[in-house]
Amino acid sequence: MKAAILHTYGEPPRYGEFREPEPREGEQLVEVTAAALTNLARSRAAGTHYSDHGELPAIVGVDGVGVLADGRRVFFTGPREPFGSMAQRSLASRRTFPVPDGLDDLTAAALLNPGVSAWTSLAHRAELRPGERVLILGATGVTGKLAVQAARSMGAGEIVAAGRNRESLRRVGELGADVTIELDQDPGAAFAEAVGDKGFDVVIDYLWGPPIEALLGALGRADLHAASRRTRLVHVGGMAGPSITLPGSALRSSDLVIIGTGTGSWNPVQLAESVEHVMRGAVAGELTIDARPVPLAEVESVWNLDGKGTRTVLIP
């Protein structure tokens, strides 16, 4: 069968022939109709993610949409190595979810990975409550835009969105952000102004690196009488850098809780709940995404392209 095959870590996968997957107990063969090119798929193929493909060659792709032998259309995730989702056929296990009739394959494939990440970060990791003040760091990316929409649908009181592209920030405002912050200038000053006397209840972070260091400096309080609120900071991605310098004073001077979200930090029940909420929100028009279909045969040429807020979806 045809597939996107990774031969060497750090190089783009190539379109070619790969052996057919043979289902084991608890698995089903799925005819893939769409598979999104996600940051997770890229980082696993680069060998920089804490989960990788193991022995190569292997088919890339962590999730997708397809049709089972009984005709059911499903979203599937986590196929067994080496049979990733970017192929004509893959393997669906227990992590398989029916796709509603009101959601087309392209949108489902593009939306569910970042949508579930955003929803899980807010609902299960940050435990966002209605009326709370939220900061989305890296809001101009695909997942950041969905985090803004998800926070709005959950009843956030005020949503502050931070990013680097002015035009993309304008779009984020249309999607539900109340305030936008341009990080092209002085992020420390921008964060200090945004924190103000109100602070943030929840921070969803897709950047890490210097932006988080600047934010931590803004969250600190030296005045014992200053208004304070607990801030739950959820780390999701490291687009601005893989590490930070964390002074002890940043923790002593703020009521700050730092946690992460990703594979290994949530359970199957939370995953299923998030998938259900995201699908329902997509059908209702509360969660939207910009998606671009590309033939699977072109995977090598589009692998490292910047989608600029648009999710590339490979079509076998």
From TrEMBL:
SMART domains: PKS_ER
Pfam families assigned to the protein according to its UniProt record, in alphabetical order: ADH_zinc_N
Residues annotated as transmembrane: none
Record Gene3D superfamilies: Medium-chain alcohol dehydrogenases, catalytic domain
GO molecular function: oxidoreductase activity
Enoyl reductase (ER) domain: residues covered: 10-314
Name used for this protein in its record: Enoyl reductase (ER) domain-containing protein
